[in-house]
Design a protein that fits this description.
Layout lengths: L38 H5 L1 E2 L2 E2 L5 H7 L6 H24 L8 H4 L11 H5 L2 H10 L13 H19 L7 H10 L4
Antiparallel strand pairs: 1-2
């Protein structure tokens, strides 16, 4: 019983005229969940160039969010924070400075997200690096679905803003809170 006659993938077969056990897909069929015609969403690129901005509506749809734009962005950022802490913070740390736990244990440090070069990089750049990997970083395409990759990109942008926001860009209430926390001269 343990050795039943069956064809193994990519095994030779005398049954089919072309000698292959694996059968090609019927022309025109698309495996469920694999119709990826929106290159900007699934690859982070259009015409070989990284997309400039995160596709919020598609991410919200993929994450089944249907609130106001503010609620949707808050949910996407929260999801990005969760996924960043799971997949990215070991190397990039929770602030994005590139001094995560594996770096503290001797692994080479990744670049900080707070460098001028990465702050100026388009959103599609980060999505592409998460998808395909870069340098020592391996790809995460199999571990992180596209909507979560975009959520991580949104969180990276929030981290960058948290370290480089000008006080003049803050709301009056936030400026007041910042002044209250500032040490006395």
């Amino acid at each position: 019983m343990a050795d039943q006659p069956h064809l193994e993938p990519l095994e030779a077969s005398d049954f089919f005229p072309n000698g292959m056990a694996s059968r090609p897909l019927v022309e025109g069929t698309v495996a469920r969940g694999h119709l990826r015609i929106d290159k900007a969403y699934f690859e982070g690129q259009v015409d070989g160039k990284p997309v400039e901005q995160l596709p919020w509506e598609k991410v919200a749809t993929a994450l089944h969010l249907d609130g106001s734009p503010e609620q949707t962005r808050a949910h996407v950022l929260e999801r990005g924070r969760e996924r960043f802490n799971i997949f990215c913070s070991a190397c990039h740390d929770q602030t994005g400075s590139g001094q995560g736990m594996v770096v503290q244990r001797g692994f080479p440090a990744p670049p900080t997200y707070h460098s001028d070069r990465l702050r100026a990089a388009p959103d599609g750049h980060f999505y592409d690096v998460i998808t395909r990997g870069f340098g020592r970083m391996s790809d995460y395409a199999d571990q992180i679905p596209p909507a979560d990759r975009w959520a991580i990109v949104s969180y990276i942008r929030a981290l960058q803003l948290s370290q480089h926001a000008a006080a003049s860009e803050l709301s009056p209430a936030d400026r007041k809170a910042l002044q209250a926390e500032a040490p006395a001269p």
